[in-house]
Amino acid sequence: MSILLETIIGKIKQFEVKPDRFAVIKETVTKDYENFKFQQPYKQALYYCSLLLEDHTWPWSDELEVLPHLEADDLVEFLPRLLSRTFVECYIAGNVEPHEAESMVQHIEDLLFKAPHPISKPLFPSQHLTNRIVKLEKGLKYYYPVEGLNQKNENSALVHYIQVHQDDIKLNVKLQLFALIAKQPAFHQLRSVEQLGYITALLRRNDSGVWGLQFIIQSTAQDPAKLDTRVDAFLQMFESKLHEMTDEEYKGNVNALIGVKLEKHKNLREESAFYLREISDGTLTFDRRELEVAALRDLKKEELVDFFNNYVKVDVPHKKTLSVHVYGCLHSAEYKQAIQEADPPKVCQINNIFSFRRSRPLYGSFKGGLGQMKL
What we know:
This protein is an alpha/beta fold and 375 residues long. It has helices spanning 2-13, 19-34, 41-53, 60-66, 72-84, 98-113, 169-193, 224-244, 247-262, 268-281, 288-298, 301-312, 332-340, 353-359, and strands spanning 85-86, 121-122, 141-147, 156-166, 199-207, 210-219, 320-327, 347-349.
């Protein structure tokens, strides 16, 4: 592994742009961007949700517009600038001794920073990237209506996102437990009973350490605005079920979640993904599972009910909601009506993604300072 790594870093240091390879790769990348419009509507809705929430993201259409104008000479010119200021963050897992890992990192630093004429210098503190997420306003429901990129697709889609909190062990387990308890009832009610769409899911969402819930529905039966009302109707119905849950049922769900958390990683890839997520988010809570299991064992049913009443229940003052409505060709008339209608109280239509992002405060980044850590 160390020999392979040294070879790759050496190739990066002495990278040569080959015009024929550049042309082939450019064509492949361009086709990937052009095919984005043919993705399923629910994937487009998830994309728009990320674009609305993440501070440093660019729309696929902007990147597609730039691609035709890029040539091999542009990459030749760009590469020295790319490497001129560099930050190296390493995670090494597997059958490697600590001194071997340190030697591998040292070799990378020697190649990039310590040659007689180094190609790289460390990033300035002001240049370190952070992952920052838009903070939604409490008590206000945002929604973003948009036509599907492929208007031959009959499906419409909804992503109904409830933003809850920035990484906190106690709130994490409350959110995870609620999602576990509500997942099957949501699927049963929205898909099996109401038959809104084949793709129906309730999932937890984590954006750089900002946690929430999201409902995903893809449907030809109802337009996204009506799907949104059905999600609220489900939450109103589920409230009584949550209150009626017996102590035995509650303990069974807690134990099921604890059991999931105590499972060992199935392979090195899964284990590495866990640690890499902590590093990339900047949370660095490597004993997360142990802490969350301990919090679950102390969690009372009343605390879960309070969590629902404060963050998830329909129309509570602290609730923060964002809905993305992607309209398929069967619901074109409903889309035209949606963008013309006046918003009711405490509901706000987003007309421009980037104006919305610029107008909202951001959660602080866990990456914070230089993002450097030594164990």
